């Protein structure tokens, strides 16, 4: 089960929540353990999800002009220069071809 947290955090949970584990033989150091995933463990892990993630709100501009301007504003000056050079070198037709957009 993927938790999205470090191994150390999981080990703290195992000790604090008194989860059932089993020694995993053949691992150097002898510290590797398998955690028995029961209902209690699943509930705990579900309760910890998204605790540290900020709520994200996404808004996509409706028109392409606003989207392009916002994209350019987020680019570094060096990235903006490279994009300008590309547009000047290959033109809009070349950009559309690279995007696999045919002229219709």
Structure explained in plain terms:
- It contains four helices and two strands, in the order αββααα.
- The protein starts with 6 loop residues before the first helix and ends in a 6-residue tail after the last helix.
- The chain has 104 residues and is mostly helical.
- It has a two-stranded antiparallel sheet.
- The protein has helices at residues 7-17, 39-48, 64-74, 77-98; strands at 21-23, 33-35.
- The longest helix is centred in the C-terminal third of the chain and has 22 residues, at 77-98.
- The protein is 52% helix and 6% strand.
- Among the domains are: 7-48, no CATH class; 76-104, no CATH class.
Topology:
Layout: H1 7-17, E1 21-23, E2 33-35, H2 39-48, H3 64-74, H4 77-98
Antiparallel strand pairs: 1-2
């Amino acid at each position: 089960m993927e938790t999205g947290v470090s191994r150390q955090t999981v080990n703290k949970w195992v000790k604090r929540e008194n989860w059932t584990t089993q020694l995993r033989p053949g691992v150097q150091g002898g510290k590797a353990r398998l955690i028995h995933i029961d209902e209690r463990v699943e509930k705990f892990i579900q309760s910890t999800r998204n605790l540290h993630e900020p709520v994200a709100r996404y808004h996509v501009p409706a028109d392409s002009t606003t989207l392009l301007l916002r994209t350019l504003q987020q680019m570094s000056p060096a990235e903006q220069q490279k994009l300008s050079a590309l547009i000047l070198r290959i033109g809009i037709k070349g950009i559309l071809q690279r995007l696999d957009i045919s002229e219709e």
